[in-house]
Every structure is written in structure tokens, then in C-alpha cells.
Amino acid sequence: MPLLARYSDGAVAAMRDVVLALDKSAAKPELIVADRQSYDEIDRWPVDRVYSVPSHRTELRVGVAGRPDGARLVFTGEEAISQAHAILPDLQRHRRRESGRQFRILAFSTLALVSVVVAYVVGVPLLANRITALVPPDWEEGLGAAAEGQIMQIIDAEGGFTVCGNDPDGIARAAIDRFTAEVMAGTNSPFTPKIWMVKSDVPNAFALPGGNAFYFSSLLDVTRSADEFAGVMAHELGHVAHRHGMESLIASSATGLLVGFVLGDMTNISIAAAIGATLIDSRFSREAEREADRFAAEAAVRLGFDPGALADLLDRIAGDNEMSQSLAFLSTHPFTAERRAALEQIAKQTAARPHGPVFSAEEWAAIRAICDGDIPSHPPQLYETPSLRIGRMPSN
Amino acid sequence: MSVTTEGPWARAEQLAVAPGRLSGNVQFSGRRGELFGRLLRGYLLMLPTLGLYRFWLTTAKRRFYWQNTIIGGDRLEYTGSASQLLVGFLFALGVFLPIYLVFFYLSFQSSEVTTIGYIGAALLLWFLAGYAIYRGRDFRLSRTLWRGIRFDQKGSAMGYATRRFFWSLLVLVTIGLAYPFMAANLWRYRYSNTWFGDRQFSFTGSWKTIAGPYYLAWFVFVLAAGFAIWAFVPAFDNASFYSNDIAGMTSLSMAAFLIVVVGALCFLYYRSRETTRMFSAVRLGDASLSVRVRARSLVGQYLLYGICLLGVLVVLGVIGFGIGQALDADLSGGDFSAASIARAGWTGLVLAAGGYLAALAAFTLLGEVFIDCGYWMLVAREAVITNLDSLTGARATPEDKSVAGEGLADALNVGSF
Questions:
Q1: Which among A7, A106, A265 is the top mutation candidate for probing chain B, defined by the most B β-carbons within 10 Å of its own β-carbon?
Q2: Other residues' Cβ atoms within 10 Å of the Cβ of residue A291
Q3: Shortest Cα–Cα distance, A97 to chain B (Å)
Q4: Bigger pLDDT: A47 or B327?
């Protein structure tokens, strides 16, 4: 039974009806392509150079090496296809080899991508740290100024932004500045941080890149002792000294690039990309909090205030529960119990100096009253804001 | 909607009634179910490959479209491969890294510089999108084979991107009125640089080809939007937000509903006319294409899409609810240990993330099956090529396989089909 096909030579746009025959007389078998009517020979294809190309399930299309790329024999229908496979037994082996090749490409590129992700998750915190050291401090100060502008707008919208007790000769101001200088002494930080007391009914404290930190009056209202106050300030100064704002910016830029690469959407429009980026970034953020805690505990040991006081304040305002612990990997902050344990661990390891007041009674009284006078009328909604954070910038 | 009979359309109507082998020389043999199967398989394989399977899926999808499109009895062939797309994507990454670094640098600057920088970057991305669209078209055409001869896109992608960029700024400035001029210009640039072997395509349309339907749709939409705002919005004032003014909210949602529905209908009406008239202005030597797509066919597809999407989302919701109930039962069994609560938290999160991904996949998957595939089917089945025989004898031209492929299009999410 003759093997019928449609043929194109790949040089001129035309399909011819052809009949095929196998010539086994030559050293290598050849497929003779002949016109279906006249039986004139059109071409001879060496059987071992014939390959199949992806085609519709009702067709088998083959090309041949050494002819134009578009040269094709098209077999249509089950019968013709199985006949063709009988004459060209290598086709299926070629096809299997090709799908094996595709599978290997996919597997290797996936492996490569997995190793990029692993290298990223392990390496970026280290790398961000190194890169941060290379960023000129005045870049970071510029960034801090820009962030400050945005944050003031937000705070303004939420009920006003007033800096309290900014008289350089005031007792409170002088005490805070002295404390800042003592904490920063010997850290080799390029910045001269300043902690601003701000009247606001949002209970918060945070540090910006470049050295400015803020302590809000609502948080001061629930700060019960000078040690708690010192602990929070030392924590914020820890962010400044470690340049965490800068580090997190570098880390989240790298995350955006990675997630964009994984999902193939480098403009970062898709929500999925945002979720992925948040998951990865929150990990670095928690690490930064631990580092700032460590810094605060070391300062506490050096200056002689109670490192556990920071945890007391955190306990009062946050209140862990088990449900939220199961979602810990989403949170930007580590949990209070964990933080307290770490703080006390450091305090235990180092021989603490005799426990003395870090602020005199007079100074602490002045600090507590720094925003007094016209405190916002409604009480701070502390317990209704479980997301309360003592951290860096409210958002990246 | 009535059919106008001026312009290239008249020709299509005459052809449609002409008997014999002229009509129906373009066919489409694919079925939605088959595409759905390929897409579902591809989406699932994207999970273990961290999304890299998308290049293989795109290739499988194109093979489906190409191989099922039959012109004059011969199927189109797609000769591109997934690894070419993968390589193209790596090239695109090379373009994006510097842009990324610039973004990074800008974030340190004062807010004015940052704002200007971001605007500049947005414009650059908009420009690059035009470049990517053209390169993507080049990639697809140069890997399309019909009767053994390759198509090709010549012309300059930069030139196309520049035209598209400035035209779209003009369209923006003229609140859309310049659009027919832009469309005609870009269609002409694309088609007069498209080749089949050594034969060059041409485009006979002009802005007049689509001006009528476009300005009609534009005018109706503006009128409807104006009416909606005039009729419904005054009943609603700022205080309504706080006082839960139900009448005010209702009238506002009425206005939004009216604008969306009229907008969608105007868009589909115009899209059907643009498809019909612009495709019917495409020529290849003596051969000419004519296509007739009705607005109601497009509306029907969107309705079908909406109904199926609703069905799938309801099913997904029921499944999610069922799992949630099962977990609740688990907890109310008296096991209130920290571990079980934590487990529930995790499961809840996995459910939420899984539900989000499933809903997102349903949106895009059904969109591809009903909207994209539906459009391709409509155009292919309604297309007629006159003088198809005149293409016999077109000769192949030397290979021109660009390496960079269409990675940029993938990266910018502007790839089509």
C-alpha cells in the first residue's frame, strides 16, 4: 500500500500531493518523494536525518536536516501516521529524546532558580549588611529626610504633629540628649541621632534612617519607669546604629527583584508578588528587631539600667496569644516572650554594673511632663491597636 | 446593532454572499475543552517549577492556536520553542537590572527628585512596552510557517515604540479623540512591515476606516457618564459616608453600574467594528483578507465568561467553606491545645493563600478560554481570503532568528497569545 503525504520544499509556498517509497539500496536508506500523479521523483530524504516537529494530533509532520527549515512531509490520518512510523522508526526515539531534553532544561532551570532563592534567603541579610556599609551616610540622611516628610503628613492627618519640650536648656531635653550620647558612645556610628518627643495620640516610637528617632506622648503615658523609657530609646538607637532602615530598603529591593523574577512580572504589579515580597521581608524585619533588642540590652548593661524593663513595656502593650504566634512568620516583630528571654539572657551573660538610676528623679519627672499642658482630649486607644509597634519606620 | 455598508465592509458583505470556494477558506478546528486541559496542566506544573513552566505553557498554547488554524486546507505551524522564550527572558532581565538600580538610587534622593524619577521610569516602561509588543510580534511571526514558508516582521521595534509612545501621549491630551489616527498609523506600520516569505503585506485602511464607530462609541459613553453623574450623584453628598445614607449610596452605585455597563457595551461594539474593518484592510499582494465580527458575538462571549466564572467561584467558595467547617469541628472536639490552635492558624493561612491563587487562576484561565480563545475563533471562522491562490510561488527568505525573543514582553506582561 503506497504511503501518501503532502509535501512542501520549504523554498516556495506550495503543497504537493506526493507518494513515498523507501530506497534501501543506498548505503544509508533514503525516502523517495515522488509526485502522486506522474511518479516523477522530487527529492530524496536520508532517513536518518528526518525529524518530527510538533503537530496537530491528526497529523504527523516531519522535516529533514540539510534542506530548508520549512521543508515538510505531512501525513494525515491514523493510518498514514502509523505507516510513516513504521518506515521511520527513529522518529519516536527522536521525539522521546527531545522531550527528555525539554524536561532536563526545565528541571535544571528550576534547580537553578531554587538555589537562587536559597542563596537569597540566606545571603541577602549578610549582603544587605555589607552593602549598607558602602552606602554614604549622607545618602541615608537624605532618605531619612524624605521619609520624615511622608510620616509627618500621615501623623498630621491622624491628629496633629507637635514636637514637645524642644528648648535645648530644658531639663528633659538635656537628659535625653545626654542619654543618646552615652548610648551611642563607642558605636562608630556616622550619625548623631536625635530623639524627638512628639505629642500624638498614636502610641508609637520609631527611628528613621539617618538618625532621627521619635517617641510619641501616648507611649510615654504608659511608660511606667525611667528604665522602660531608656530601654525603648536604646532599642530605637540600635536601629540607627545598625542602619536597619537602609538595610531593609536594600533587602526589600532585592526581594522585589527576586519575586518579580519568579513570577515573571518585573513591574511588580501583581498582588501575588506583593504577598511573596511581604513574607520574605518580614523575616528580615524580625531579625532587625532582635538586633536592636540586643543593642538595647548591651546599652542597659553598660549604663546600668534594667534590660528587662523594655520587655515589661512590651508585655503591657502587646500581649501575645497563641493564635498570633502560629502566624509569627507574617509578623514584622518577634514575640514578647521570646524577646524578653533574649534580653535577660544578654543581661545574665554580662556582669551588670551596679544598678543605678539612668535618669535622676527630677529628670524623669521632667520627661514625663514634657508633653503636658494640652494632651489630646480622648485617651489613647492602646488596647484596641494590637498591631502597635515599637520599631523603625511605620512602613518601608 | 445595525451593520453599516460603507468602506471595506461593503466588500466583505459581497464576499460573504458569494458562493463557492471563496467563503470558508480559513477554519479553526480547536475546541475550548482542549485548551482548558492544556492550561490547567500548565498552571499546575507552574507550582513545582516556581513559575518557570510558563514558557512551556505559552508554547503549548501557541501550538494549540496555530495548529488548529487552517488556511486553504493547510494548518499553520508554530516552530518556536520554550527554551527560546526562557533565553529571551534572561536577556530581558539584563535590561531590567539597570532600571532597578536606578530606582534604588532614586529612593535616596529628595522627594522632588524621586517623584520626577518615578515619572521618568513610568514613561520609560511605557515606551519599553511598545518595543516589547513589536519584538513579541516579530518573534511569533518569524516562527509561523504556512505551506513551508515563514512569516516575518521587519521594520524597527524602536521606531514602532517611538510612534506608539508619542501617539498615546497625544491621545491622552485629546481625551481619546486622536485614537483613530493612532490606531490607523500603528496598524499600517505593523502590516506594511509584515512579510510572508518574499511577499510584503500592506494596509489600505486609514483613520476614516474606524472613525465612525469610534466617535459614536466615545460620544455615547461620554453622554451616558455625564447623565449618570448628573442624575444620580447630586443625591449623594459627603455626609452620606458617615450617616449610612442608603438612598445616597444606592444612587452612587446606580451611577457606577450605568457607567460600567454602557462603557463595556461601547467598548465591545467598537472592538467588533475595529476587528472587522481593520483586518479587512489587510492585503498581501493580490490576496486580501476580510473579517466580519459582530458586537453581539463579543457580548455573548463576555456573558458566557461571566457566568462560568461565577459558577467556578461559587464552587471554590463552597469547597473552602467545607474545609473551614471540617476544621471547626476538629477544634470543637475539645482539643484546645496550643498546637491544634496553631495548626488551625496555619491551615487557615494555607486555605486563604490557596483560595486566592485558585480564584486568580480561575480568572485568568477562564479569561483565556472564553475571551482570548473565543476572539481567535471568531476572527478565524469569520475570515475569508480572496485570491489565496496568488500566494503560491511566494519564496522563502533567509533565516532571521532573533535571540532576544520576547522576554521583555513577558517581563512587562504585554505578551498576547
A1: A106
A2: 18
A3: 15
A4: A47
On the 0-12 / 13-18 / 19+ scale of CB atoms within 10 A, B220 is middle
Give me A376's grid cell. Answer: 489630646
**What burial class does residue B403 get, using C-beta atoms within 10 Å of its C-beta: 0-12 exposed, 13-18 middle, 19+ buried?**
exposed
Q: Which helix (H) or strand (E) holds A5?
A: strand A3-8
- Percent of residues, chain A, with pLDDT higher than 90: 20
Residue A29 sits at φ, ψ, to 5 deg, of -60, 145
In whole angstroms, give the CA distance from residue B289 to residue B8.
Answer: 10
Instruction: Return the residue of A nearest to B198 by Cα.
Output: A12
Tens digit of pLDDT for each residue in A292-320?
Answer: 888 888 888 888 888 888 888 877 776 54
Q: Is residue B168 classed as helix, strand or coil in its secondary structure? A: helix
Amino acid A146: pLDDT? 73
- Residues of chain B above pLDDT 70, percent: 79
Model-level ipTM above the cut of 0.90: no
Is the pLDDT assigned to residue A335 strictly greater than 60? yes
Q: Check CB contact under 8 Å for B392 and A14.
A: yes
Q: Are A52 and A61 in contact (CB under 8 A)?
A: yes
Q: Are B110 and A138 in contact (CB under 8 A)?
A: no
DSSP strand E in B197-323: where? 199-203, 282-284, 287-290
Q: Say whether A67 sits in a helix, a strand or coil.
A: coil
Of A55, A106, A267, the CB nearest to B412: A267
Q: What is the least distance, in Å, from the CA of A198 to any CA of chain B?
A: 23
Long-range contacts of A267-276 (CB under 8 A, 24+ apart): A267/B125, A267/B411, A267/B412, A267/B413, A269/B413, A271/B356, A271/B360, A272/B356, A272/B357, A272/B360, A275/B353, A275/B356
With vertex at residue B78, the alpha carbon angle to CA A30 and CA B87, rounded to the nearest 5 degrees, is: 105
Picking from A102, A140, A257, the nearest residue to B82 by CB comes out as A102
Chain-chain contact of B411 with A264 (C-beta, under 8 angstroms)? yes
CB B255 within 8 A of CB B228: yes
Show the cell assigned to A120.
Answer: 537569597
The pLDDT value given to residue B358? 81
d(CA B182, CA B168): 7
* B345 → closest Cβ in A59, A69, A323: A323
Q: Which residues are bridge partners to B145 per DSSP?
A: B77, B150
Query: What are the residues whose beta carbons fall under 8 Å from the beta carbon of B341, sequence distance 6 or more?
Result: A322, A323, A326, B331
| B residues 129-158 closer than 8 Å to A (CB) | 145-150
Interface of A with B in 77-136 (CB under 8 A): 102, 105-106, 109-110, 113-114, 117, 135
All residues of chain B having their beta carbon less than 8 Å from the beta carbon of residue A266 are 92-93, 96, 411-412
A105:B82 CB<8 A: yes
CB A64 within 8 A of CB A7: no
- What is the DSSP secondary structure assignment for residue A359, as one 8-state letter? S
Q: How many CA atoms lie within 13 A of B105 on its CB side?
A: 9
Residues 167-196 of B with CB under 8 A from A: 196
Rg (CA), chain A: 36
Q: Which of residues 319-338 of B touch A (CB under 8 A)?
A: 338
Of B23, B14, B44, B5, nearest to B385 by C-alpha is: B23
CA distance B215 to B179: 9
Q: Do residue A10 and residue B53 have CB atoms under 8 angstroms apart?
A: no
- Smallest Cβ–Cβ distance between B111 and the set A56, A146, A265 belongs to A146
